[in-house]
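Response to reviewer comment R2.3. The reviewers asked that we include at least one raw input/output pair. We reproduce the pair for NADH-quinone oxidoreductase subunit H here without editing.
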Amino acid sequence: MSPFLAAEDLSMFGRDPWWLVVIKAVFCFAFLMVTVLFSIVWERKVVAWMQLRIGPNRHGPWGMLQSLADGIKLMLKEDVIVKRADKVVYVLAPIVAAIPAFMAIAVIPFGPAGNEISIFGQRTTMQLTDLPIAMLYILAVASVGIYGIVLAGWSSGSTYPLLGGLRSCAQMISYEIAMGAAFASVFLYSGSMSTSAIVEAQQDRWYIVLLPVSFLIYIVTMVGETNRAPFDMPESEGDLVGGFNTEYSSIKFAMFMLAEYVNMVTVSAVSVTLFLGGWRAPYPISAFWEGANHGWWPLLWFVIKVQLLLFFFIWLRGTLPRVRYDQLMKLGWKVLIPVSVVWLMLVATVRTLRNENYDFADIVLYVAGGVIALLLLSFIADMFRERAKAASHPAEEPAFDAMAGGFPVPPLPGQELPPVPRRRSRRERELIVSGGPDTQSDGSLDGKEASDG
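Raw output as returned:
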């Protein structure tokens, strides 16, 4: 039976005793916390290496305990609540931001769905639980986390945190649409929304090979969802002081930082599960070693893949500058969403033809013909649009006003700043201050200087 029509078997979940469920939950929490502590130090080390600096090297061997020391320092700092804040929402916001970040890891498989490992004599799966709609659960939990950032900006009673919260809300909405379309392509190929079933469907070929466009779209959207550089608009300190967390201190500020790094680990784990084979060993290892995907070994492959994606996050931060906000919105609405929707339609067409038992050559021929026809129609439409624009001769746009509304505004694409007025020379300024003739209104200065000479 085709995997598109196969139903997932989740009967192995929900049979663990309560103490084993508690152990698994503690392991998931500890995995996230340890990975976050390591990622913070690793990020500072890698960025320092890129910038020819030393990085943290004081706390612990090679500075590995630096993030732990920073966390203890934040907890011991004075916890300040600003006077104009809505205290209940102000305190609740970091909790709302942090808790959903931990919840998504519950449905991520660290190993095969069968009873592969033994914990205190109890055979169990390397996954806390699974659901027939596990990926929808992840999307729902991720969307709840944004409320923490929005409420933090609103409840602070300050202008810049409010702007940071609004930016984050718009950014999340823009990029979650393309992320959902990328997920839908995986659902079409695997025939399931269960995370364990999606990994099982990648036994022969990882989805990064079958769905490369979906993988690239998700990589971009996961950077935008976690507010990481170059998409860190909500906390851009250059124009918002510190963004939505400007008015926070002590443990509440630490919870926002914790939520950001936990979200990095979560989206990396989701990417590994959907596109990189999950817990499966890479091809050269799995081909020559039968036991690579059994026992505790799958946990090692999963952790290595997650760490590689975390390194990708760090690499972006140390390489790319922050984009403008209009560029961020243009990429989300005008590039990612159209591309993801067209790609989803293409994937659905291919899956339908495969289910109808069409040959691979026929599928390629039909898809290529449709793509060529779409490109021709787009070319013709652009050609007629350019001719109509050239024939209309639109009226000249008004000159750009750099002080529109009394405030300095940056020029939009295609607009030019007015020329800067000529600066007076030192001789002219001295004459004006001393009561001499103004060179802008009196043209006799040059003649007087010539007669004096």
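The chain has one domain: 18-379. Residues 18-379 form one domain. Further pairs are available on request from the corresponding author.
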